[in-house]
Amino acid sequence: MKQAIITSVALSAIGTAWSTVNAQTVPAPVFAPTQGQSAYTPSARSIATANDNNNAQATAVSGSFANPDPGTIVIHLNGRVNVGFASFWSSADQRFATAPAGSLGAGTPGGPATIAPGAATPLGTVVGNNGTGQVKLAPNSIYSYARLYFGADGMAANGLRYGAAMEIRQNFTGQISSNTSSGASGYSSLETLFVRRAFTYVAGDQWGIVRAGQADGIIGLFDNGVTTFQFLPTGNLQNGSDLASLVPSNAQVPFFFLSGDGNEYAYNKLVYLTPQFAGLDFGVQYAPNTSNGFGNGSSNPLNGSLTGAGTGTGNACTVANTGCPSLSSGPGQLDGARVINQTTVGVRYQGIVGPVGVLAYAAYGLSGHANFTGPTTASFLGATVAGSKFTGKYDGLNFGNGGVAVTYGGLTIGGNIIGGRISGVLAPVPQNGASELAYLIGAKYTAGPFTIGIAAERGVYQGAVNLTGISQRRGQALDIGASYSVAPGYLVYAEYQYQNLKQSDFNFITNAIGSSANNSIMSQGFVLGNIVNF
């Protein structure tokens, strides 16, 4: 066991340059070798990302993974620390802010104070977003985060493969303000850890692999970040990019293509992948709802947070509370948007055609949805724009997704497309709302430890649901980046990103519906960072 642990930790350093290793060891293919069995995370992020191989790679990528002998189990212990410098600008960088009616100020003589819009902030107010005046953001920042990756791969005496993995992340909440005596030291306690992936698997060379838990689905496993050109160690575009995490949320174009996105992998599901036949393998997944962890349990404090007359009592989802993950109908304002019985099927081809490596896949997803039983009045739904067709009801998911990438030498080109009854990142479309259509194209070149790439996406989707039947949202983004493996376990990277969103009658600064102001928002910026994987 001790030797297995030492081997695993040492080999994780090799994985930090996995995209380079993959290009050098298996020159033509753009895919991770799987034999239809293993379940890689995007190759640009190294094996430290989730430790979810099932020991089938050793013969294809010699020396990259520790594999158990029959009757043993290999333990994986890995980590990542990422620190970078960023500069970014957006249309929301500066504005004149007016305090809303009823804003509270703390620290005033005699206790909290209420100020009217446009009035001066009371003397002594030191906490509270209640001032009226010009607001401007500085463009520069330094960011950091840490992650932990644990896994186990075992083999029974009869040859059955099994294992588990979990991914633990540091959240992005750091120091909120410097206006109190706590400063950075006090606010560091907000940097808590949370579970991002947690799953088990069983597998056999003759019948495939079954994965269960909070983990990647068919699209994430079949794409592996290849046709979506996630060529940087932090991802690209809006999927994991450090820069995307820094710009205002209303300026972020969705990563439409799901591969490696938290909305695709962070809910509990069952996934089955077949063995590979002549380069082809097939997969299917099922999830009763989008809950993760023990979200349906009676101990979840969120389960009873939205209750009302006739909707049950208590905090447990064993009674019919609106807002429960297992809800099939309810009167809550967002109950109709709840996805249930989500299923995806797919097929993938990976192989070598002459001198060219090919990865191509196609997937089809569908679901049911909770039935909205609440009032359809504008005052309840917030549909304040004349002509809006929003009723609080939604359609189930019904969409197709596919991608292809080809590699010759160190150059990979390709793209991805998604379309149908889906909105943004795996959200349902309101009845009468616009369907989504989005595409991505990209290119990547790898030479030894150096990788450079470019990716661009464009998509049309419903956007603000209260504007159903009136307008739809359009987004586009461009990402250019490069990384260099300085030494085993140590990478440096640089990235530039541009984003633009548009929707008529929607104010991207204030979220106001029916506004003719700020109907478009733009952001751009760059980052320089370094990562140590261990």
Structure report:
- It is a single chain.
- The protein is mainly β and 534 residues long.
- It has 2 domains: 2-93 and 137-176 and 185-291 and 326-533, Porin (Beta Barrel); 98-136, no CATH class.
- The protein contains 6 helices and 22 strands.
- The protein has a 16-stranded antiparallel barrel with strand order 1-6-7-8-9-10-11-13-14-16-17-18-19-20-21-22. A two-stranded antiparallel sheet has the order 2-5.
- The longest helix is centred in the first third of the chain and has 14 residues, at 2-15.
- The model is unreliable at 1-64, 101-113, 123-128 and 304-316 (pLDDT under 50).
List the helices and strands and how they pair.
Blueprint: H1 2-15, H2 18-25, E1 72-90, E2 94-97, E3 103-105, E4 113-115, E5 133-136, E6 140-155, E7 161-170, H3 183-187, E8 193-204, E9 208-214, H4 218-223, H5 262-265, E10 268-273, E11 280-289, E12 329-330, E13 339-353, E14 356-369, E15 371-372, H6 378-381, E16 398-408, E17 411-421, E18 436-447, E19 450-461, E20 473-487, E21 490-502, E22 520-533
Parallel strand pairs: 12-15
Antiparallel strand pairs: 1-6, 1-22, 2-5, 3-4, 6-7, 7-8, 8-9, 9-10, 10-11, 11-13, 13-14, 14-16, 16-17, 17-18, 18-19, 19-20, 20-21, 21-22
